[in-house]
Design a protein that fits this description.
This protein is an alpha+beta fold. The chain is built from nine helices and 13 strands. The chain has two domains: about 140 residues, Jelly Rolls, CATH 2.60.120; about 150 residues, Reverse transcriptase/Diguanylate cyclase domain (Alpha-Beta Plaits). About 40% of the residues lie in helices and about 25% in strands. It is elongated.
């Protein structure tokens, strides 16, 4: 294809849109731009094929492409890209095959940078290689932070900020496995707000949510650093206490029940909160997490049935 008459400066502007290249100094961008070429692809042309070696970075000047992945029932469209977008960035850095097919929806005019030209420039300019390495490092760090943030959100209750039911089950299995392997012990405490439905019915869900948030904060503030509180249901909470037996679990549970009944949520209305609790200890009440949970849940039920605002254990 013939070279475009577009000034190098204009091509530099397009290259700067690529995250890998956006922090490069203008002289370096201009050098890269001088190694690009312009190509035109007719509608229907497969610009890159899934599975083939990646050889170029493409920056779309005009037109539209579709990015597809082949599926059992036909191609699955991943994205549509237009003027100013790009694809094939990672082909400049590695020799992995293309992960999708890109086809021209309409006539496409694109700026193309070959991997060979890109790598040759790196060889000629160690400083450029260092800058690219720094840019890659920043991108990897940002991606890690994003993934970490997403992972944390998936494991936490959106209202109270406590770890959620999924996290609770994972931790319960971990502690049970540790107990079986190394002869360690731990306790499980289940906590439930008494007559919480009446709070929502009388004062509204905003007040109910404020109470749940307060309970979550109280559980965090009044447990040991090694203990982990969870919100496992609507008004249901749990605490996993490593390195404790039944006697300590009773003491911890009673302290939490008493503290919550004596304190007051920071609300404009005067509201007394009452909770009930049940506990079980591993290995005294079993090693299997399901069995341990059942023992603690039955103890909690007895606490509810025998007056609420109290703690019951396996023997009560």
């Amino acid at each position: 294809m013939p070279e475009s008459s577009s000034p190098t400066a204009d091509r530099s502007d397009y290259l700067r849109r690529v995250p890998l290249l956006q922090d490069l100094a203008e002289p370096d961008l201009r050098k890269l731009a001088g190694r690009t070429r312009e190509e035109v692809f007719m509608a229907g042309t497969r610009i890159v094929e899934i599975g083939e070696p990646g050889e170029c970075l493409y920056l779309i000047l005009d037109g539209e492409v579709r990015v597809v992945f082949p599926g059992r029932d036909g191609d699955f469209e991943l994205a549509r890209l237009g003027s100013g977008d790009f694809f094939g960035e990672m082909a400049l850095l590695n020799d992995q095959p293309r992960s999708a097919t890109v086809s021209a929806v309409s006539p496409v005019r694109a700026l193309v940078l070959d991997k060979s030209d890109f790598r040759q420039m790196i060889v000629e300019s160690p400083k450029l290689a260092l800058k690219l390495l720094q840019a890659m490092s920043q991108r990897v760090r940002y991606a890690d932070e994003q993934m970490s943030g997403l992972s944390d959100k998936a494991l936490r209750d959106h209202l109270t900020g406590l770890l959620n039911r999924r996290s609770f089950h994972e931790r319960l299995f971990e502690e049970s496995d540790r107990a079986r392997r190394y002869g360690e012990h731990y306790s499980l405490i289940l906590i439930d707000l008494d007559r919480f439905k009446s709070v929502n019915d009388m004062f509204g869900h905003d007040v109910g949510d404020a109470v749940l948030i307060w309970v979550g904060r109280m559980l965090t503030d009044h447990t040991r650093g090694a203990d982990q509180p969870f919100r496992i249901g609507g008004e249901e909470f749990a605490v996993i206490a490593p390195g404790t037996g039944g006697t300590v679990a009773l003491s911890v549970a009673q302290r939490l029940v008493d503290t919550l009944s004596e304190a007051r949520p920071p609300l404009e209305i005067r509201l007394r909160v009452s909770v009930s609790a049940g506990y079980a200890a591993c290995p005294d009440n079993g090693y299997q997490p399901e069995a341990l949970y059942k023992v603690a849940d039955q103890a909690l039920l007895r606490a509810k049935q025998t007056g609420r605002g109290r703690v019951c254990g396996p023997e009560d």
